[in-house]
Amino acid sequence: MKHRSLLTLLFMLFAGVANAQVTYFADLIGKGFKQATIVQPSDYEGSVTCTIIRKTTPEKSTKAVLYVHGFNDYFFQEEMAERYIKEGFNFYAVDLRKYGRSWLSHQKFNNVRDLSEYYADIDTALAVIKREGNEKVLLSGHSLGGLVLSLYASERAGKEQFDALLLNSPMFALNIKSGLKKTALPLLLKRAEKHPESNFDLGINPLYGESLHITAHGEWSYSLGLKPFIAPPVNLGWIRAVFNGQEKLAQGIQINKPVLVLHSAKSIDEKKWSDIFFTGDAVLNVANVARQAQNIVGQYSIQAVQGGMHDLILSKQPVRDEVYSTIFNWAKRTVK
């Protein structure tokens, strides 16, 4: 009885959050983008927020896209938003708790112990989108956001508030060498059970960030405070949460809505800068992504993108034009 009462209380708290009116202010991007901070129930670190970013179409539309960013990331992709708006989608993004606009000073960046912690942020964003008159919704997730949305879509089977799912280089497998995966990873996961706050450096190559940012070799301008070249060390709890999510996928997950999985045609593992970074995925093993994607049960399509970078929509112009063409041709069939 006590357990049931607690669940009822938690549901009421979430319902209050999801149905609360949101107030938009000018976003840091400017140019017509607005943002709203949503206060969520506190967690093991204290106060929690997520942030909804919005820009609507000039003419009234009843379809929308909700974009969910990846690890060491936040929403900054103005060009992507404008492409969706041009195609008649009201554009929404969410900076998940402890990322980007939603990070609070008492929190560790990116901290999570179970990927389901993000479901409340997604539920809230979708509730706002529906309340604002959008009848059809495309969910879009990049990298870690792609993994989270895949699990979320499976968990919400039968109660979906979206119509299709787009996955841009989803983090379906940790890019760990097989030897380390057999020896070190089990030890890290065991330690994470009792010491989830212990730090661990993922060793992500900073050259990927340099391939993107305008101050280095790239063409994109964004905050290096919110998306640094070198990601902050994660907690062991993060590794355990991501591994457990990937294991769920490996066992097979049912998704009732159409799914499009896009990934680069090749992975790259360079130690020094070269233009090769513009031609492949410098973060994930794309063979593992393609293999794991086949564990989705439902109507899905997997496509490799020649010359695509890890974040496909940040690839060089000809490649990202092809990516957008693929996305919108698919969306016309699935989000009507």
Core attributes:
336 residues; alpha/beta; Rossmann fold; nine-stranded mixed β-sheet; two-stranded antiparallel ribbon; 35% helix; Hydrolase_4
Explain what this protein looks like in three dimensions.
35% of the residues lie in helices and 20% in strands. It has 336 residues and is of the alpha/beta class. It has a single domain, classed as Alpha/Beta hydrolase fold, catalytic domain (Rossmann fold), CATH 3.40.50.1820. The strands form 3 sheets. A 9-stranded mixed β-sheet has the order 1-2-3-5-4-6-7-11-13, with helices on both faces. Helix 1 crosses helix 3. The longest helix has 18 residues. It is globular, with a radius of gyration of 19 Å. It starts with a helix and ends with a helix. The N terminus is likely disordered. Pfam families: Hydrolase_4 (PF12146). InterPro entries: AB_hydrolase_fold, Hydrolase_4, MAG_DAG_Lipase. One of its GO terms (molecular function) is hydrolase activity. Keywords: Hydrolase, Signal.
CATH class: Alpha Beta
Total helices: the number is 9
Q: Give the terminus-to-terminus CA distance.
A: 45 Å
Named CATH topology: Rossmann fold
Low confidence ranges: 1-17
Helix content: 25-40%
Q: Percent of residues in beta strands? A: 15-25%
Overall tally of structural domains? 1
Strand order of the largest sheet: 1-2-3-5-4-6-7-11-13
Order of helices and strands: HEEEEHEHEHEHEHEHEEHEEH
What's the CATH architecture name?
3-Layer(aba) Sandwich
Give Rg in angstroms: 19 Å
Q: In CATH, what is the homologous superfamily?
A: Alpha/Beta hydrolase fold, catalytic domain
What overall form do the CA principal axes indicate? globular
The counted number of beta strands is: 13
Q: Helix- and strand-based class?
A: alpha/beta
User: What's the main sheet like?
Assistant: 9 strands, mixed
Mean pLDDT: 92
